[in-house]
Every structure is written in C-alpha cells, then in structure tokens.
Structure to design on (168 residues):
C-alpha cells in the first residue's frame, strides 16, 4: 500500500526482555520523576486560605455608581447596552418625578437595569461607553452558583449603597 506520509514508524514487535516484563526500569524511572518533584516549589496554592494577586487589568463584577450626594448616576441612555458585544445589558428608562432629585441625578433614570453575567465577557466596553461614570467593573470575582437566575444581576444587586448614609 502506498504511504500517505513519510512519518510512519515501524512498530517493534520483538518479545519483551525479562527486565521489561518485571517493569523495574519503568518503575525506577517513575520514582525518579516523583523524587525530583518533592523538593521543587509547589505550583499550586492552598486556596481559599491563600490567594494569588490579580493582574492590574483584572475586571470583575460590575457596580452602578452614585454621585457625591448619593443620587444614582445612570440616566438610562442605553450606550452601555449598545456597546456590549455580548448583549448582556437590559434596562428600562423612567422619568424622574418632582421631589426625587435626591434619588436620581438627571431627569431620566434606570427603573430596571440588569446584567446577565452568563453572557458577560468582562470586556469593560460598558464602562468605557458610559458618559456618566455610572457603571464600573470592580476587582470582585463573580461568585459561583447553581442556578442560572442567580447570574442575572439586577439594579439592586449592582447599585452601591448610599455613601455616608446615617444609621438610624
Ligand atoms: S463587560 Fe463587556 S460583555 Fe460585560 S456587560 Fe460590559 S460590555 Fe457587556
Ligand atoms: S450605565 Fe451609563 S451608559 Fe449605561 S445607561 Fe446608565 S448612563 Fe447610560
């Protein structure tokens, strides 16, 4: 039969020697590799007690920011959703009512704001697109979960607490 390539190798089918049948050389070779690794610095760490430092460019969970007076910065302009390559952001806009100036910074605000973290690729485009400095990616790692619903982060999950809020 014509060979397809010149890389084929003839298999050695000669009977095994006594030493090969005893597996002693192979055993010694394996032990040598094991002993060689005993005195090496381990490549693993005892997580979660020990944690590796993140890269300076690491991007984790999002937050929705407030201004210095505690009002929500997001105006539901939709630019973050438009910039998102994974179509992970959805929102619904609402009009600010008189008396709500302390809650919302502009006349429009996000009544609903959701990020599907199963879609998100943590690219940071939403943060770059936001003209109001409202959405940020933090250094918090997204926690694991067993349900798909728990990866849909709603506005109340994303919005930071009111700064310097007085405790009653
Ligand atoms: S980090 Fe990227 S993928 Fe995730 S929500 Fe923002 S724009 Fe979309
Ligand atoms: S987070 Fe920023 S870009 Fe996204 S809707 Fe709000 S203001 Fe617009």
């Amino acid at each position: 039969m014509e060979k397809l390539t010149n890389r084929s190798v003839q298999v050695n089918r000669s009977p095994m020697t006594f030493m090969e049948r005893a597996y002693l050389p192979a055993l010694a070779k394996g032990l040598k590799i094991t002993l060689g690794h005993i005195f090496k610095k381990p490549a693993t760490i005892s997580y979660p007690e020990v944690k590796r430092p993140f890269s300076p460019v690491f991007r984790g969970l999002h937050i929705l920011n407030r201004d210095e007076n505690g009002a929500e910065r997001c105006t539901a302009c939709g630019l973050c959703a438009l910039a998102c390559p994974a179509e992970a952001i959805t929102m619904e806009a609402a009009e600010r009512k008189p008396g709500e100036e302390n809650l919302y910074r502009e006349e429009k605000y996000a009544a609903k704001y959701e990020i599907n973290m199963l879609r998100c690729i943590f690219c940071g485009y939403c943060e770059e697109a936001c003209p109001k400095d409202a959405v940020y990616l933090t250094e918090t790692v997204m926690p694991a979960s067993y349900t798909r619903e728990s990866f849909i982060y709603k506005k109340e999950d994303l919005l930071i607490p009111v700064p310097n809020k007085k405790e009653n």
